[in-house]
């Protein structure tokens, strides 16, 4: 698990803004109950995280349809929090 986090940190540019689809396709954030190898489940999971304000995103949409982008720093922050929670659960 630690190895995956290190690899992901190398792939993500902290200064860049990423689309939820790009994040899902690269497998950086994966839906916990994903049943297939499709990135679509992870994409929907990322949108739920944004709507629940668990991951911060900027809406670049000009109309009714939102067009979210997530900063690389925010992706890394979210992943570090997730791995920290998993680590603390395993220690108990």
Tell me about this structure.
- The mean pLDDT is 85.
- The longest helix is centred in the C-terminal third of the chain and has 20 residues, at 72-91.
- Helices cover 53% and strands 9% of the residues.
- It has four helices and three strands, in the order H-E-H-H-E-E-H.
- It has helices at residues 2-11, 20-26, 40-51, 72-91; strands spanning 17-18, 58-59, 68-71.
What key phrases describe this protein's structure?
92 residues, 3-stranded antiparallel sheet, 4 helices, 3 strands
Task: Compose a concise summary of this entry.
The chain is mainly α. The chain has helices spanning 2-11, 20-26, 40-51, 72-91, and strands spanning 17-18, 58-59, 68-71. β2 (58-59) and β3 (68-71) form a beta hairpin.
- Spatially, the strands of the biggest sheet line up as 1-3-2
For the secondary structure, the number of strands is 3
Element-level helix/strand string = HEHHEEH
Q: Rough shape?
A: globular
Please state roughly what percent of the residues sit in beta strands, choosing from under 5%, 5-15%, 15-25%, 25-35%, 35-45% or over 45%: 5-15%
Spans of 5+ residues with little confidence (pLDDT < 50)? none
SSE inventory with pairings:
Elements: H1 2-11, E1 17-18, H2 20-26, H3 40-51, E2 58-59, E3 68-71, H4 72-91
Antiparallel strand pairs: 1-3, 2-3
């Amino acid at each position: 698990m630690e190895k995956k986090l290190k690899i992901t940190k190398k792939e993500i540019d902290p200064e860049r803004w990423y689309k939820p689809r790009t994040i899902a396709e690269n497998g950086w954030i994966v839906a916990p109950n994903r049943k297939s190898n499709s990135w679509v489940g992870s994409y929907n999971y990322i949108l739920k995280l944004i709507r629940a304000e668990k991951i911060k995103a900027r809406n670049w949409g000009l109309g009714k349809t939102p067009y979210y982008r997530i900063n690389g720093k925010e992706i890394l922050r979210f992943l570090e929090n997730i791995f920290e929670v998993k680590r603390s659960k395993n220690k108990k």
